[in-house]
Amino acid sequence: MKICISSTVDSINGLADGRFGRCPFYAIYDDETKEYEFVENEGAKAAQGAGIKAAQIVVDNGVDVVITGSLGPNAIRVLQAGNIKIYKMLGDKVKEQVGYYNEGKLISIDKPGASHMGIGK
Amino acid sequence: MQIAVLSGKGGTGKTTVSTNLAKLINVRYIDCDVEEPNGFIFLKPQDIKSKEVSIPVPYVDEDKCIHCKKCVDICQFNALVHTDRVILFEKLCHGCGACRAVCPTMAIVEKDRPIGKIETGYSDDMECLSGTLNVTEPMAGPIISKLKGMIDDKTTIIDCSPGSSCNVVKPLLGVDYAILVTEPTEFGLHDLKIAVELVRKMKIPFGVIINRMSQEDNATSKYCKDDNINIIGTIPFDRDIAVMYSKGELLIKDEKYKKMFTDIMSNIEEAIGCSL
Fold it and tell me: Which PANTHER family does the record associate with it (chain A) (predicted)?
């Protein structure tokens, strides 16, 4: 199983990013190898459709679970179409999120936040 | 000849200037402010004919799709996404057709999606055109392009959207002269400078009209003088104008304002003559 966390930097010691579509990196944790892989979000600088582009990256990487702050309506539609579960992050560190997930502390997100909120944060 | 009327800021009086000038010299008027067209309120054209404007959006035939994702990768607007099938976000689609062009199995066909309308009518014998973008639609470009495509080289006054976005650049393509309408406020001046930059970059000769002028000596007229910008006219800050505007009347109905617009027009003709 793969868990994807939206991240501000390409390090597990960094801060998780509350934005889904326009965060700079995704930390993708593989629970078989217990390792993180960092994927740059090419959608972050997109003029439009950042959330869609980002969701496509997540789908292409075979992710099963996304942990983030909030997502727009388009991103949520893509992730749901890809049968990816979405959870709201706790605290602010990237490396803490998988632990919270395994302990069942994370609340699932099933409603989109406002669109275009990631711009200008 | 095409004359565009624009402004960096909204609500400065573009429609007032363009409808009155168009009616005064009896030339074609075209409202390219498709998000909020209001020229027809003042010109009151008759026998309005309405035509729907659509853009072609892709439709994927799932039987033919081989899930190669080429359509998703080529889309510059992130309108397509692939999970177990291709999903279209139609409001992001610009109708460019790239997805159809790269599809190796011809699984993509295009369907027309209506985004707005174009209305044409006559105010006396004066031709009036206006585009309207449907509410919630994000893309005004295709309607503006279609409007521009409907005019020939007969003199036309083009009423633009406020700002300096694509929706202003599009109507400005190929125009002979630009009228920049502004008002003597800090915001008006700030946004006028952006509009000046735009028309200079596009190498369009232009002049400025200062609306709601209450005193001759203000920051906007000083800026124009310092920057060698031609002030082709001023419109006073006047209760009578506000009353006529609120009733949807053209100002040129009143002799004193008719004279004002006649003077503005002769300044424009002079400026165009010099720039040719």
Answer: DINITROGENASE IRON-MOLYBDENUM COFACTOR PROTEIN-RELATED (PTHR42983), IRON-MOLYBDENUM PROTEIN (PTHR42983:SF1)
What domains sit in chain A, N to C, each tagged with a CATH number? 2-108 (3.30.420.130)
Nearest-by-Cβ selection for A56 from B77, B82, B92: B82
Q: What are phi and psi of B38, to 5 degrees?
A: -135, 10
Residues 22-81 of B with CB under 8 A from A: 72, 77-79, 81
CB A66 within 8 A of CB A84: yes
Cα–Cα distance measured from residue A45 to residue B78, given in angstroms and rounded to the nearest whole number: 12
Sheet strands (E) in B151-230: 156-159, 177-182, 206-213
Question: Which class in CATH covers the domain with range B62-106?
Answer: alpha beta
Residues of A in contact with B77 (CB under 8 A): 47-49
- CA-nearest of B148, B273, B263 to B205 is B273
Q: Which pLDDT belongs to residue A23? A: 96
Considering Cα of B194, then B195, then B201, then B206, what sign does the dihedral take?
A: negative
The two structure tokens encoding residue B4: 């565009």
- For chain B, give every domain's residue range: 2-53+120-272, 62-106
Q: Which two tokens stand for residue B182?
A: 């502004």
Contacts of B108 (CB under 8 A, 6+ apart): B58, B59, B60, B61, B71, B99, B100
Rounded to 5 degrees, what angle do the CA atoms B14, B131, B257 make?
30
What interface predicted TM-score (ipTM) does this complex get?
0.88
| pTM, 2 dp | 0.84
Binning chain A into helix, strand and coil, the percentages to the nearest 5 are 25, 25, 45
DSSP state, A44? G
Task: State pLDDT tens for residues A9-68.
Answer: 999 999 999 999 999 999 999 999 999 999 999 989 898 999 999 999 999 999 999 999
CATH 3.40.50.300 for domain B2-53+120-272, yes or no, is yes
